[in-house]
Structure to design on (305 residues):
C-alpha cells in the first residue's frame, strides 16, 4: 500500500515460488480490493509471468491457478461488497480450475495418477507380506485428480483473499474482517441448490465425487463463519476453534458435520436464536460498516480512515 512498485516486486518475487505463491496472490488481492480492478489487473499481468515460467519448467500450474483464482475472487468482492457471494464464486473457481487441468494439463494428471498407482501397489504388497487382507485401493482417475486439485485451488484462493481482506481491515479498519466473516451467511435456496449439485456429482460415480466437494466449498466457508460467530457469542478461546480446524482436516465426519450444521442453520437460524437468548433486539452484526472499505473509490484511498 505504500507504493505501486513495492507491491509489484513482492508479487512477482512470490509468484515465482511454489512455496510462497500464496503471498503474491494475497498481495494482488489486497491491491485489487483497495486500489481497484485496473491496478489489480496490472499487477496480475506482471505477477503471472514468473508463475508461467514455473509452470513451464516444472509442469505445476498451482501457483498460476492460485494467482488467477484469487484475483477473480478479489474482483468479485470489490464489485459486490459481499463475502457470501465471493464464497459461492470460489466453487466456480474450483470447477473452472478442474476443467482447465483436464484440458491443458493432461501430462501432469497422468504423471500424478501413475505415482498414486505405484504407491498403492507398493502399499498393497507390504500389507500382503505382513499377512493382512487386500486393501483394494485403486489409483484415482484423471477426472478425480482434476476435481481434487480444482477444489484445493478454490479453497486456497479464498484463503488468500481472506488474508488480503484481513490485511486491508487491519490497515484501515481494525477488527472489521472478523465481524464481516462472522456475519457470512448464504441464502437458504442457494444452500440447498449447492447440496443438490454435490449429491448429483456424487451420484454420477466415484470419478466425480471430488467435483461434488467443490460444490460444498461455499457451505464449508459458511460453516466456519457460523462456528466463529458461536465462539464469539460464547466468549470461547481461540484454542477451541483450533481444535475444530484440526478435526476438520483429519476427519471426514467433521467435514460432513460442518455441512450439516449449515443445513440446520437454514432452518433454525442460530444467530437469531443466540440473540434472542441474550434478550437483545438489535440485528446481528452484518458487517456493513466493515465492508465499506472494500469498494471505496480509488481517489479516496489516501483520505479514508
Amino acid at each position: 500500500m505504500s507504493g505501486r512498485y513495492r507491491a509489484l516486486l513482492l508479487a512477482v518475487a512470490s509468484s515465482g515460488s511454489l512455496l510462497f505463491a500464496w503471498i503474491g496472490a494475497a498481495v494482488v488481492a489486497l491491491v485489487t480490493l483497495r486500489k481497484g480492478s485496473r491496478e489489480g489487473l496490472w499487477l496480475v499481468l506482471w505477477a503471472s509471468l514468473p508463475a508461467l515460467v514455473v509452470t513451464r519448467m516444472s509442469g505445476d500450474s498451482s501457483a498460476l491457478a492460485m494467482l488467477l483464482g484469487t484475483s477473480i475472487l478479489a474482483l468479485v468482492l470489490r464489485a459486490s461488497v459481499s463475502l457470501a457471494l465471493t464464497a459461492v464464486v470460489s466453487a466456480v473457481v474450483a470447477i473452472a480450475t478442474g476443467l482447465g487441468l483436464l484440458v491443458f494439463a493432461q501430462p501432469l494428471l497422468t504423471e500424478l495418477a501413475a505415482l498414486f498407482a505405484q504407491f498403492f501397489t507398493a502399499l498393497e504388497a507390504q500389507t500382503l507380506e505382513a499377512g493382512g487382507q487386500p486393501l483394494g485401493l485403486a489409483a484415482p482417475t484423471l477426472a478425480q485428480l482434476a476435481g481434487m486439485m480444482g477444489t484445493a485451488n478454490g479453497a486456497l484462493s479464498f484463503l488468500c483473499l481472506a488474508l488480503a481482506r484481513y490485511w486491508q481491515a487491519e490497515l484501515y479498519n481494525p477488527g472489521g474482517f472478523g465481524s464481516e466473516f462472522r456475519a457470512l451467511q448464504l441464502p437458504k435456496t442457494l444452500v440447498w441448490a449447492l447440496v443438490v449439485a454435490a449429491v448429483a456429482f456424487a451420484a454420477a460415480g466415484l470419478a466425480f465425487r471430488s467435483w461434488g466437494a467443490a460444490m460444498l466449498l461455499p457451505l464449508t466457508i459458511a460453516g466456519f463463519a457460523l462456528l466463529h460467530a458461536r465462539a464469539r457469542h460464547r466468549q470461547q478461546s481461540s484454542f477451541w476453534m483450533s481444535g475444530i480446524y484440526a478435526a476438520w482436516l483429519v476427519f471426514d465426519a467433521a467435514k460432513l458435520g460442518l455441512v450439516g450444521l449449515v443445513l440446520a442453520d437454514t432452518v433454525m437460524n442460530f444467530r437469531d436464536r443466540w440473540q434472542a437468548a441474550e434478550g437483545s433486539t438489535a440485528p446481528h452484526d452484518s458487517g456493513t460498516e466493515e465492508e465499506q472499505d472494500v469498494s471505496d473509490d480509488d481517489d479516496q484511498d489516501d483520505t479514508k480512515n
Q: What stands out?
A: The CA atoms of residues 146 and 223 lie 25 Å apart. The first helix runs from residue 4 to 15. Confidence is low (pLDDT under 50) at residues 280-291, 297-305. The chain has 15 helices and no strands.
